[in-house]
Amino acid sequence: MTKLQYAQIIVDVPTMQTNQPYTYIVPETMLDTVVPGMRVDVPFGHRHVMGFVVGLRATTDVDTEQLRSITNVLDMTPVLNAELLSLSDYIADETFAFRISVMQTMLPNALKANYERILKIIDDVNDDVRYRIFKGLEEITYRPQEIDPTDIATLTKLRRNHKIDMSINVLNRAKIKTQLAYQFTDDMEFLENDYQELNKAAKKQAELLKFILGHLGEIWIKKELQEIIETSDSTLRQGVNKKWLKKIQVEQLRDPFAMVNMPTTTALQLNSEQQDALDLILASADAGQYQPFLLEGITGSGKTEVYLQAAQHVFDQGKTVLFLVPEIALTPQMVRRVKSRFGAQTAVLHSGLSDGERYDEWRRIERGDVKIVVGARSAVFAPLDNIGLIIVDEEHETTYKQTDNPRYHARDVALWRAQYYQIPVILGSATPSLESRARAQRGVYELLRLTQRAGGAKLPTVEIIDMKETLADGPETNFSEQLRIKLKERLDRGEQSVLMLNRRGFSSFVMCRDCGYVPRDPNCNLAMTLHMDSHTLKCHYCGHEEPIPKICGQCGSNRIRYYGTGTEKIETELKSLLPEARVIRMDQDTTRKKGSMDTMLQKFGNHEADILLGTQMIAKGLDFPDVTLVGVLNADTSLGLPDFHASERTFQLLTQVSGRAGRAKKAGEVLVQTFNPQHYAIAYAKNHDYEGFYKQEMAVRHAGNYAPYYYTVQIQASHTEKNETARQMIQVARWLRSRVGDQVIILGPSPKPIAKLRNRYYFQIILKFKRRQELDILLVELQNRAQRTKNGLQLSIDREPISFM
Ligand code: ADP
Ligand code: ZN
What we know:
seven-stranded parallel beta sheet, globular, 6 domains, 25 helices
């Protein structure tokens, strides 16, 4: 057999011209070492660059005289397997990105930066390795440039056989933090004695004591203890006084999910809807078929239990599971549930991990030590190689789309990987994206529906408050009388409330206080954005512009003006309305510090506050049993988004935040304040009617030529000179118009809502079209041209953009 001797390499030179594999010679000494997916050092022009080996060949049609050789192998094992290599091709094409950028994106940071890599002997090795390569030391720094290629081959083999290990030396290790914990006494007799003598009325103390008796001598972190038994700080203090337990400080684990004493859970008996859904998923898993399922289940319908049982089934087949969540920080309870079911075989890739810790998790996954990986967007690249099921929870969430290059959508990547492995994918949501729901309609996805709350809890009642009436006979306020009364009630009953100030997006628009009218542009029917500099309203799709109206176009009132307010102002108003209420304010300002959000949520969970006031970040995942009232202060902000998703986002947000009320035994109530009580997104959310909303919104999308009937692409460009950006974008639009028929709708160019950023001016063109292929060819050509002409214009192409800001 001929030895393979040519390598196809993608070099780390991110330009359009180099966005293809180059052929290099594999020197004889490296023949045993080099495999696809490894990084190598190669000469390129007058310098050396890093490159990824993407293929090996025995022959080449390139003139071999011209070819140069690989200088060094940088990895001992491939960092990308065959599947991920092929995935990188797909993503590059799909997102108009360079292959090298995609490959880099797939890897943990630790592998990108110049971290020091350490080789360590962990088992018996021969003397040659020990004394010549390791120079008699237990560990050495790995510098591939200084090691002979045949030695690299030896090391690779040793590593594969677990004789040596490679790790990353992270220099700036986080300081060790400590946290409050309790050590229980192990004196059972003493405790039993106290238990007998306890006053009958001391229920809380009895509960604590019973728990200690069941966990003699153990150490418990305070917050975890309080999660399991509802014991107050004062009960704990009494326990300490009575010597049942003592306070200690323990090292805080940086992984917030590496919880000690995690309670374990077992599968619940499914209800019939859950069982039907699970059966179909398992059938496709058993058949070894690619099949996407859209699991449309109302909040609290037990989607998670379906995920977990499907995962268990896949483990039993000896396969692994990839579980994506929108944002780990906002869904700690979901992670906890996965961990308490599957324990140490869970890897959690969350943003709180340092580069080194993330790399450790990555290696655990790559070595096959974990069965399930839970993580946000980038976890979709987890190097699992035997996936049996992929779960995308809250599939409609926009955080799944990366807004920087490469602009991939994790849901699409998940579908690609599922197709590769021929396995089922579960896309779960209470409010599926219109795109996904429409695909289910067409049979591309199989629709599974859960229509009942599983735990027996009822859906909260939702009441819509017309703010026009509140303002008609009183001063400007953010609190309707109904909301004030209900908040007071909760306060008197010792129950908790959540108040959401909708700040989705940060556009400003005008709204009539008398009739709720928001001016829309005549071409696109989208809310127009207020521009104080030019004193105009603008549509950011088509560029339509008009003066700010002095009177309302619908009712003639002169109370039409800017709409929007901040959480701080609300907090002040709240304090004057209910001075006795303890309020936690959660917004971008108060949660900037790492971990502060966690602390606030914990405080709220411990009843150290009565009202949690926050932006839409509080809508997700929170699960507090004593929250019986949810107030939405201003449903209109998201309706005023200059984007065709405005209604969809409003419906999603209202549904999600409503799901926060009445999670447990106590019934929940939701009040939604709005100037547009008749708007269909609000009305359907009130009735918990996703299907109704879906049907009506589809009709709206159809009429406006929007997704899912049309594809949308945003071309965005920036330049340091405003006029130059405009001029060149007009040329781009002209060029596009000359190349496509009138079945492609071209809008713009128009300045972006945030037109100037870091001294660059931004303009955009929106394309709407029905057939993808022909347009893709044009877009690639456009990108090529933009690269070639050195005119300072930075151009990017975004497929199905999630924001037009
Ligand atoms: P979702 O993910 O759809 O919002 P969850 O999975 O959070 O719903 O379920 C809501 C509650 O119902 C949870 O407390 C869960 O433990 C409980 N639950 C789920 N399935 C069942 C079941 N089959 N029987 C009893 N309780 C269930
Ligand atoms: Zn318009």
